[in-house]
Design goal:
Largest sheet: none
Number of strands: 0
Helix content: 40-55%
Strand content: under 5%
Radius of gyration: 81 Å
Number of helices: 7
Oligomer: single chain
Structural class: mainly alpha
Shape: rod-shaped
């Protein structure tokens, strides 16, 4: 088969050979131009791509929040702990002021204006002055000395002879009455209560009490 093709080429004329060579050369030239063109087109594109990649600014990185450092403690002066205070006792509530109570008014004592009343009043006065004596002892001596008459007077004994007769319920002479008069009573020797208290005061000093007297004293 090959031999037949070669024989066909050998038979070509010089003119045909030249034409065939020129055509082949043109094909080769066209192919070479295409390859160069392709090469020229691709290189700038790649260069441009590389240039774009280099010149394009890199995207800004998102800021990363830096951790906030804890503030360094300030060196404060060390204050020593105070000692615990002792517990104070509770304050007592103020004592309410006592309600004003009016002092009781002593009831007025009423004494009968008779022998019983005179003896009872005399006993109260004697008790206030610490003079001893009893109702019975006083009553007994009054009945012996004057029979209960506050105006009785002895005009016949030695005292009467001396000018100082005995007077009143318990027959007291003026010097004795004045010496043993009890405060708070009348200075009148004829006053029944004053006469009783003065006589009982005298008997208390001389005999210990009017109760101890059973005769003239």
């Amino acid at each position: 088969m090959l031999d037949k093709r070669l024989s066909s080429f050998r038979r070509l004329s010089l003119r045909d050979s030249v034409t065939l060579a020129v055509a082949a050369a043109g094909v080769i030239a066209v192919g070479t131009s295409s390859i160069i063109a392709l090469a020229d087109d691709s290189v700038p594109s790649r260069i441009a791509m590389v240039s774009d990649q280099q010149s394009a600014p890199a995207p800004a990185a998102e800021p990363v929040a830096e951790p906030v450092a804890a503030a360094a403690p300030v060196d404060a002066p060390i204050i020593p702990a105070l000692p615990a205070l002792p517990e104070l006792p509770p304050i007592p509530a103020p004592t309410p002021a006592p309600a004003h109570v009016a002092a009781p008014i002593a009831a007025a004592v009423y004494y009968e204006d008779n022998l019983d009343g005179w003896i009872r009043q005399a006993l109260d006065i004697m008790a206030a002055h610490g003079i001893p004596g009893s109702y019975d002892g006083i009553h007994r001596n009054i009945m012996r000395e004057s029979s209960g008459n506050p105006r009785a007077i002895n005009l016949w004994d030695s005292n009467a002879a001396a000018g100082i007769p005995s007077k009143g319920l318990l027959q007291v002479i003026d010097p004795t009455f004045n010496a043993y008069h009890v405060d708070g009573t009348s200075w009148d020797i004829w006053d029944p209560v004053a006469n009783i208290t003065a006589a009982c005061n005298y008997a208390a000093h001389r005999y210990g009490s009017m109760d101890n007297v059973s005769s003239a004293y």
